[in-house]
Predict the structure.
Amino acid sequence: MIKKVVFTDIDGTLTDIKTGELGEVKDLICSLKNRNIPVILCSAKTRAEQIKIRRELGLTEPFIVENGGAIVIPKDYFGSLSDMPNHKEVKEYDIIELGKPAREIRLKLLNIRNQFKFKFIGVADLSIESLCHLTDMPPASARRMAQREYGETILQIDRRQQRRFAKVAEQSGLKTIYGGRFFDVTIGNDKGKAVGIMINLYKKKCYKDNVKFFGVGDSQNDSTMLRLMDVPMLVQGPEGTWSNLKVKNIIKIPAIGPNGWKFAYNKVMGRLNADSS
């Protein structure tokens, strides 16, 4: 029997982009877990944020943080990983780091701000109280968001400066990654590269080639993940439209966020045949 593994974005895909609510998705994840189908979170969210979500969902699988900044793997999930490049151990996790440390990115951003007089606000510029006010998050959620390890999230920027900022950032060796509400600035973070490593680990350590990979996303930021999937799926954004992704055989789900995830679940379970476009 062919094994199945599901990769999923979080904001706007697994959860409602505005409220962060999981809704009926919790039951769907539980159903997949009961059938021994791993669900891999792959998101811009921090390790602290994703640990909380994994606890809510009862997940025990590896997860990909900060747009591919690192892969976080529970100890012994794949056996010994000491021979993996950029590997380190942190408490109960093996961590494979792809991105550079947040302090390095923030130092470059400080130099850019001073040299080019850009007006922007990053997470590190704010107190927890101010972060709560700007993001409409409760204090505990804001603290988890602030625990960035592999980049900086830009919360506000003068729109007239945004295109030039991205160009200057690129010239400084930085990468801008656009998500739903905000955008991240990183060095080395890559969802596709992180997902590729995970796929290879599942094939080598668990299933060999007897496995099919399903992916669910909602935005351009998910394209590198979805290109590696056997079954790539795209839910609608909050406006009811799909992001324009160049992904072969992508399935466009006619529903928004978690409502679309229900469709994806049925696809994983083999309950429907959807047209791809």
